[in-house]
Amino acid sequence: MASTEVVVPASAVRAPCAHCGLPVPPAAAVAGAAHQFCCEGCRAVWAILHEHGLERYYALREGAAPAPAAPADRLYGELDDPAFQARTCRPEPGGRLSTELYLEGVHCSACVWLVEKLPGLVPGVAETRLDLPRSQVRVVWDPRAVPLSAIARRLAALGYTPHPCRGLAGQAARRREDRAMLARIGLAGAVAANVMAIAFALYGGMLDGMEPEFAAFFRWASLLLTVPSLVWGGGVFFRSAFAALRAGTLGMDLPISIGLLAGFAHGVVNTVRGTGEVYFDSVTVLIFLLLSGRYLQRRQQRAAGEATELVASLYPTSARLLESGRVREVPLETLVPGVVVEVRAGDLVPADGVILAGRSTVDLSLLSGESAPQSVAEGARVHAGTLNVSSRIEVRVERTGEDTRVGRLMRLVDEHARRRAPIAQLADRISGPFVAVVLALAGVTFALWARLDPSRALDHAAALLIVTCPCALGLATPLGVSAAIGQAARAGFLIKGGDVLEKLTRPGRMWLDKTGTLTEGRAALLRWLGDPAVKPRVAAAEAHSSHPLARALVRALGAPAPAARLAIEETHGGGIEATVDGHRLVVGSADFVAARTGAVPAAMAAGVGELAGDGLTPVLVAEDGRVSAVAGLGDPLRADAEAALARVRALGWRPGVLSGDDARIAQAVGRRLGLAAADCRGGVTPEDKLRAVLESAGEGPVVMIGDGVNDAAALAAATVGVAVAGGAEAALTAADVFVIRPGVGRIAELLEGSRRAMRVVRRNLLFSLGYNVIGVTLAMTGVLNPLVAAVLMPLSSLTVIVSSYRARTFAPGAREGGRP
Amino acid sequence: MSVLFVLLPVALLFAAVAVGVFVWAARAGQFDDLETPGIRILHDDDEPRRKP
């Protein structure tokens, strides 16, 4: 989560790094060397590649520089844990094991080549197969020859940081389903093509006449061909229609099943009788098209789901266990109360516990929403899910897993994710009236023709059922939705379910998390009252502190010129005392400064009050015993938040803020965004957020947008939960939509895109209903024959396909680049 | 034209074999990843490695 900026001075652009191609900074350049490297990591990778004769990597790689090698301080010991391996590894012949790892940074054909050369680099590895679109590598290795952690370390040393994959069991099941569906489509397609070919002969016979034994032969052949397609392919629809009926609901699959079965039964009767029309061609084409549409929709939704799982895989799954002074990496699940873990600066705290050694600041924003960092020292309690910001601490574990605050919140998430009733999609809602109308029309047709020509009454009624089989109607939603979800993914919105688009169409209540969502999520200098002359000296002193507020001051005041004389004396958590160029400087909280300089002048005290009133954290600066300035630090609003909320309001949504921060801060942010004070709640616990979402549920759809653990339960309970990037894993898994950029800036695009997508779906439904009206008219008037049906139905499906894929719903990536 | 009584079943037999192969390939996971194998095949060509 920490962002590192690599600043390369212009003078450094001489020889590029032999490995990654980035400019080599002068400090790292070695005079006279044939190959220059920008860092030790790159040098190491280059050496490994040359040692094993793998230089071809450089010839294969495409333009972009590979990720510079990661620091090799991770041991991946948790991958060797028996409990972990029992869960994620499968036995292979010859005593080998196989597992899947997610690799960061694989992006081109050279990566495929290099990763699959791993057996030559690490003895004991039998095979590595990279799946580039999923960034997943399958490793087969001999555990007696080499531990998995050593393989992981080698991959990390090459610059491909490995992570254990989440949800492997679910993934395997989904993959099996996908394969079965594809096999069904293959069969249905082949059957449809062959039956259609035979039907062409029958159409010919319809016009020019055909000897009856040939006609009978062709009919029997198409009947036999249709059976496997209907049973195996069409079974998907029959089962789902039956399940829906048993659950007391109607779905699109019911009219589809009626149409397919009516078409088939009618065909069987006429084949056996040897007279009348058969519609086997239409039935088989219907099955093929409908299966394809369903497959496409599932693949799009799955792609979004897998992409979020991939992001979730980046979250740490190991803790650094301290045993008699040595660090061992173990899986998070194996931590038990009583053990001691090390938490380095920048790491998430793995469990609830008490600090045994070390002082640091922790960022609570993901757990509680409080934006101000908290100073902690020995004896202080820290919680799982918070971020250790400034320095290494040792923590005695007291509670783990489900017993931690995060664990309890995750239980709430599960409860509410289960409880939320799925809404019937538009197409499913109209299926009830659709079935009723179609059956009534079939009845009318039968009754009508029973008077006019009784021998043809059944034929015409059956023809009506077949031609109204809602192929286009069945495709309208899957295609419209899958095309939109695909475009959304390219625009940076990962949408996990098709119903999300529909739920976002009707405006309602929108609750927003503050810290990290509306704001940057890190402190910045927002106001400076008093003498500006002291700024460079403050920067010089604060440059030596790792406290988040100190870092914010340095960022705002600019990198200090190296001070001639500097003596630092930091008091943890309160502030800093320093002598800079002969001036005695005290920078810190009001209490800290007052204790060292005596009374704070009235003007400055008023400034402190003013800043605190605006929800800012005041930092006093005293020079040579006199308070000369007050800095107001706070979590600044994102630049695009105001415009984004204006657009959201223009769409009819009512936004409000739910913040774990102090109410004053929430109000201040709300004022800036033009929100009513009543809609901006501060001091809100995760349970309060959940309650707010549930209370608003009575007023219509509720959208919750957040990024933290504290938002997760509310995200799961909301009609639609939207997680923004840069937050906690809990939010990611609880939400229905994941925005791959941090912040709220593009939320209006999501709403507008969903509206456009639903407009496409509605247009599709209208088109297909239009075709059905034509079909019904033809069937009732007795004009319909298999040839007309064979033209009409693919035509209607084609209209829907074109309408879905031609539509621009979500802005493509090109537009994204043009936006600030 | 009675040759059709033989030709059609023979043609369908061919189709059945093709469908059988496709179903086997789909179930064996041949279509799981459509991108990487296309890249992989380019690499195998140049083995063994030539030193410049």
A few lines on this structure:
The complex is a heterodimer of chains A (820) and B (52). Chain A is an alpha+beta fold and 820 residues long.
Q: What would you say this structure looks like, in words?
A:
- The complex is a heterodimer of chains A (820) and B (52).
- Chain A is 50% helix and 17% strand.
- Chain A is α+β, with helices and mostly antiparallel strands and 820 residues long.
- In chain A, strands 15-27-26-25-16-23-24 form a seven-stranded mixed β-sheet, sandwiched between helices. Chain A has a six-stranded antiparallel β-sheet with strand order 7-6-8-14-9-12, with no helix packed on it.
- In chain A, helix 11 (280-313) packs parallel to helix 30 (786-806), helix 16 (454-467) packs antiparallel against helix 29 (747-780) and helix 29 runs antiparallel to helix 30 (786-806).
- Chain B has 52 residues and is an all-alpha fold.
- Chain B has helices at residues 4-27, 36-44.
- Chain B has two helices and no strands.
- Helices cover 63% and strands 0% of the residues of chain B.
- Chain B is elongated.
- The interface between A and B is medium-sized, with 29 and 27 residues.
What keyword list fits this structure?
heterodimer, A: 820 residues, seven-stranded mixed sheet, 27 strands, 17% strand, disordered C terminus, B: 52 residues, elongated
Give a quick account of the main beta sheet of chain B: strands, pairing sense, barrel closure.
none
Largest sheet of chain A: 7 strands, mixed
Helix content of chain A: 40-55%
Tally of helical segments of chain B: 2
What is the averaged pLDDT score of chain A?
Answer: 84
Largest interface: A-B, 29 and 27 residues
Number of strands of chain A: 27
Number of strands of chain B: 0
**Global geometry of chain B:** elongated
The termini of chain A sit apart by 21 Å
Structural class of the helix and strand makeup of chain B?
A: mainly alpha
Order of helices and strands of chain B: HH
- Low-pLDDT parts of chain B are none
